[in-house]
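Sample entry (354 residues):
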Amino acid sequence: MNHIKQIAAKLDEYALDAMLVTSETGERYAVDFHGEGLALISKTDCWYFTDSRYIEAAQKQITGAQIACVGGGRSHRDLAAQVVREHGLERVGFESDCMSVDALERYQQGLDCALIAAPGLITGLRGAKDEQELARMKRAQEITDKAFSNILEVIRPGMTEREVAARLVYDMMCLGAEKASFDPIAAAGANGSMPHAVPGNTVIENGMFLTMDFGCVYEGYCSDMTRTVAVGQPTEEMRRVYDTVLQAQLAGLAAARAGVTGREVDQAARSVIEQAGYGAYFGHSLGHSLGLAVHESPNFSPSEQRVMPVGAVVSCEPGIYLPGRFGVRIEDVVVLTQTGCEILTASPKQLIIL
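Predicted structure, serialized as tokens:
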């Protein structure tokens, strides 16, 4: 699976002769391989350059590209310069949303062409997933759901947040994941009021909520989910907050479809929390796209006025966070269709009491 043709088809729209792909996610999207290399894609050809550590794997795995190995005094930039010169490439796009100023200066000094910022060319394509990408993301989510099912059999009073986080990563790896898609969150009790709490030595006790936010990478593509469970019996207020978040999430899912703006979907969920009197305690956006990276675009957020495309994979994760007391977040990942959304997350959402 690669997206060489899709990138080549976009060049005329950006008035480019070729696209220089240097980021890890761009490289993976273009040629379905990451070898700390560089891809150069013209309207008719693709070249991929890497070093001796990755050349054998690149030759086995990459299709549709001419592959060359750096070395002998020739850098990635030198090989790209040779292609630019031999093929008369005058306007070459670069990933200005990923490339550093220093890297840009090096390429400008080494390539005899005009380097043109093309920030939306690849990221725009990545916003809508094709069937092969979706198959990988569905498998990543299956692994994540199974890890959640497993952890429910393990959580008990006396465990620490760090132990829970470690077990989640271990299980996902054993189930076939390449790695975690981000550092997992396991936040117990009062720590749950911090949306991105870092797992520590806090001991889980009866009467606490435990929020777990985690995901994995499968063949380059990410999953992401959050569940909040109760360890021991929750208070009535805890139940009320949990139910409010759940109803908000269901409202967001009902509004989620291609053809509407991310702002509209965000508001559908946010209004439920506001009407329940907890609006001040939901400070982040409803959700983010994911794929090769765990945070992509477009998003479900109050500022997102772009129309959501068919095939976008987006999280739906409202939360309520009461400082110093507890927090609740519920997150599913969905694929947008013209008529609604397909929920990839299979784990139950009703309040689980352990």
